[in-house]
């Protein structure tokens, strides 16, 4: 497909990176340290996530998930499938595919990797996250792991470029912080903020360029 071919080519070029990511960072955090998510701690743990693309009912979609309520930092947040790199993973890409299979039940052999977005350090959990982009020839069926996934959320890719779905809110974090004027994507009535929103915004800027060039149709 032309879109996937052109996307693969675009992901080999210089990426929008930190400038695109910062647009979806809390203004308070941005004032404190505008590159805090770019500075990986020396002992940062590696994690991999997957932005999975597929067509459904004539439109391009991706899929996110709501995490269960837990005592941990990312409780109830909306995220990509993914998690920490394990010793059994051959490389970062293998980790992203394994996590997607474990959490969503999508066989890893069905997923074609397209490329990678810019890495992102998450200070609250100490992970350096490597986001991959993958492609499925058919819309997936899911067998989510209830220990990891409270809800599977399919999202139209075109919604990422809809300015009316970019909003501000106040976030009360599990560790007691109150963040004001936090930018987020309003996707399927879910608040998608933080690192996931930052990675999605970089992807949306890549999409916008492909759309301008006539290589992407919603």
UniProtKB/TrEMBL annotation:
Q: Which PROSITE patterns match?
A: NUDIX (PS51462)
Q: Which UniProt keywords apply?
A: Hydrolase, Magnesium, Manganese, Metal-binding
InterPro entries named in the record:
CoAse (IPR045121), NUDIX_hydrolase-like_dom_sf (IPR015797), NUDIX_hydrolase_dom (IPR000086)
Extract the coiled-coil ranges from the record: none
In this record, what's one Pfam family?
NUDIX
Which CDD domains does this UniProt record tie to the protein?
NUDIX_CoAse_Nudt7
This protein's name: Hypothetical nudix hydrolase YeaB
Names of required cofactors? Mg(2+); Mn(2+)
Per UniProt, residues of the Nudix hydrolase domain are 44-178
MF terms in GO: coenzyme A diphosphatase activity; metal ion binding
What is the originating organism of this protein?
Answer: uncultured Aureispira sp
